Amino acid sequence: MKILIKLTLYPLLFCWSCTDQAPKMSDNQLVWQNIPGRDTGISRIRPFIYRVKAPASWHRQFPSDTDSIFDTTKPLCEFLIKENTSMIRITIHNFPTDEIEERIAPASQIARWKRQFEQLDEISLNVKPIAHGGFAGLFFEAIGTLENRKTKVLGWSLQLSAEHYRNLASIDLSTQNEFKQLRSDYTIKVVGPVELVEKHQAILMLFANSFELIEEIPGRL
Amino acid sequence: MKYLTKIFHFLGSIYFAIFLILAAAIFVIAGTFLESVTESHLYASYFTYSNPVFIVLLWGFFVNIFLSTLRRWPFKIKHIPFIITHIGLLMILGGSLIKSYIGVQGSMGILEGGGSNEILIPNSYALSIEKKAPSLKALIPVNSSFKIDSSLPELQLEVVGFSPHCIETLEVKIEGKRVNDVSESAKNAYLNALQFHLVNNLSEKTIAKGNLLDILDKELSFEEGSIKPTLHFNYSNDFGFNNPCLAIDLSLLKQKKMEKIAIPLNGDQSLTNINLSSPYLGAFPYSMDLVRSPSMISFKDSQNNAYLFSFDSHGRVFSQVLRKDDLTSIMEYDHGFGGYTVQTQIPALSKRLSRIELEKDKVGTISQHLKENLTTETALSPPLKFLKEACEKNDVDFENICLAFLREWNYSHGWLFPNHPIQNETTEKVISQLDWDTLPLQIKNGCVLSSHLFQIVEENLKEDKDLIEILTSLDWPLINSLKNLKTNPGVCLAEEMNQLLSHLTQEIFSVSHLVPELTRSGIQDGRLLSAYLRLYGIHWNSIESPAPQAEEDLLIECPFHFRHQPATPLLKLEENTPMISLRLLENGEHESLTLSFDRYGTGLKWPALSGKYRLRFQPIFQQIPYRIRLRQARQINYPNSSQPYSYESDLIITSSNTGEQIEKTISMNNVYETWDGYRFYLANIVPADEGSVKRVQIVVNYDPAKYWLTYPGCILLVLGIVLLFWFRKPKNKDKGV
Prior knowledge:
The complex is a heterodimer.
Chain A: H1 2-13, E1 30-36, E2 48-55, E3 59-61, E4 77-83, E5 86-95, H2 106-116, E6 119-132, E7 135-146, E8 149-160, H3 162-169, H4 176-182, E9 185-193, H5 194-199, H6 201-210, E10 212-213
Antiparallel strand pairs in A: 1-2, 2-10, 3-4, 4-5, 5-9, 6-7, 7-8, 8-9
Chain B: H1 2-11, H2 14-38, H3 41-47, H4 52-70, H5 80-102, E1 104-111, E2 115-131, E3 136-142, E4 156-163, E5 166-172, E6 177-178, H6 182-191, E7 195-200, E8 205-211, H7 212-215, E9 220-222, E10 225-232, E11 235-236, E12 240-241, E13 245-252, E14 259-264, E15 274-275, E16 286-291, E17 295-300, E18 306-311, E19 317-322, E20 330-332, E21 340-347, H8 355-374, H9 382-394, H10 398-411, H11 425-431, H12 441-461, H13 467-473, H14 479-485, H15 494-511, H16 525-535, E22 553-566, E23 579-586, E24 589-596, E25 606-608, E26 613-637, E27 644-655, E28 661-667, E29 672-673, E30 678-686, E31 695-702, H17 706-726
Helix pairs in contact in B: 2-3, 2-4, 4-5, 5-17, 12-15, 12-16
């Protein structure tokens, strides 16, 4: 009897609860990096609005401090992944608006990216809805010819949820520009050679999935 | 002393333990039974687990175990397993009792991107009060006797009434006649003083007019036939207007077939007289217009929901409903201190266009569009080029002539233009000067053949005969190709007639070169031109209408509030909506206010004392020393299936005490526990689809005694049980069998 009890108890003492959470691939390689929003065109002050997790090995480029990026065609920030002679370019834009009705629908951004291809491989086209961090929109993936080269494009076009948009309106913020920047839509676009983009695709997805506002969005009080 | 000893031994005895076990079993059975009958866990809980008697039972267990241990005094070595076991049990019970008194269980609802450090305590009541100036916020608990224990400086609050359940109705500050049947009342109001005008489309003259109500579902005769209108108001309280229209049965003397017309009363095609029975032949020569004084009217139903109707001067209808559970656009005055209004939009009634004005607008827009496009080198189709040459010869605007001809043709109700002169003299003059000799033989013959064949086809179609039957009787040689185009084995459907007639036209032109040149005498040039235009699919209906111009809307704001009436509580306690009546007094100003329970504390706060305060009756929110930020929530499905496999949430948990921040993913079977006894479970994610921003419910459990009492007690209990078996005396092996 004593032996039976020992044989039952001893293994139990060394049992730990199994976690069903698989370790995230390459999560530890990513570090938080802050991304500023746009200036007002008059002042060059760019408030830090966003943050994203990116590998330290990626080369980050910000626009010059003396240049205004009030124009929404200019990116907030770029990341470059260089491998030999090939390069992946990741650009981040945001689109501040004064009213919710002025926002550009994510589908319109997707349509614009599709039109940029000289020739698009329809079979590779993948558009699906996504949401995270209080933003919702569309993810775009396609292969085609850009500037006579076979290129893969990944794109994320997201908008702040209507509820957050309204809640931010009732909160007093330090500056009007900061308020506009917080409510902006944003896009992340990845362009590069097909093989290189597919090689880094998992990290790129983690990167985009980590993109969020630095401060949590206040709820209605 | 003797009695005390007896009590001491009884309380520590097996008999008392058995009594306690039986009593607890009865409570558990009762709880299970009550929950299954009432479908209410709360109901069962009030009578069992949360009942003070059950807590007394737990204390009874504690006392029994404690005293049964003490009864072994003085302790010996052999008592060690027993004592360890009982100490373990006491620690577990102690932990449960401590948790029941100072532990916390609540939930927090967080939207992706947001965060919270407050948990909602279920089955608790409080008043959230906010003062405008100086700014002040407070959450005042309302105890189980519905008394308020504290208040704000200067403000005196008193609970003057409470009901465990109430019915809440919306009160919109808009006058409205209370009616039983909103749809019928609105229809009657619409028909009141609504006039009809039957108009000849080409001469634009009114050939009959009167009250529409007088001729509804009755026949009205006029020179060329008769009409019978029927109103389909199609309004429901839940869905509003669903394609309301005026349907007209039209009988023309020169044809046997009864025609059907529909006049939509709202939408992009409103007021257009749509030919339903023979759309392939274009519109009818007559149209019906509606005329009335523009008006706006409101009704209220028995639930106090308000229904707004507006009718413009041309008979269009519009509705808007202001319903308690459907207030889509709420505005607050002065951050809610000034009250709330619901906003709704209705069309500016005085600025809507009539049918004729809309048509003129369409003609003008198309003409302008044509002019702009013809300034460039645009390839016109051959029949239009042919007409343009004639217009240039006569020095008239091609666009105007073309549109005037197409319009008159459309209203002549025929596949081709009728064989009579065009009513518009300028157009007739231009078209009569078309130089047919410049066209190839195939085209000339095709126009002539089409004119003759369609004369017979149109006459028979208006006698309600089937197209295939007509062509069979004419021994049309290419009839099999038309039969192959049909989708319906029986008679030709109205929807497929346009395609069949177009194909027939193509067939005629494809064989017309096989015959010698045919004479055009006896056939009007307009008819011949229409055949040529049909070959290229050109008709008034083939012109894309310009997008309707955005019309001005009026914005109406209606202040609203909720009215509460006590009601019989429901058996399922979770579905009850308690109500509280308050009396507020400050500096001589007083007000009575009734509030219903806001279950999640996210609803509107109501103004009081002339907007100095805002109040909400809600659960207690308790702060915890951790801030939870929700980054993302997701549902994970089984592969190739929409069945959920798991739910996960990515959180950032920040300790308010140490500032330490960790990132953690919690899921259905993976909770997060802090060192000080807080446990976070993922309870719910809505909505589950990938493309929406999600709201999660996280259940937070705080057991302060878990790590130092309950868990060590469990270890001791297990150890004690093991030792009890280990040190059990073996049976005497020397005793005989």
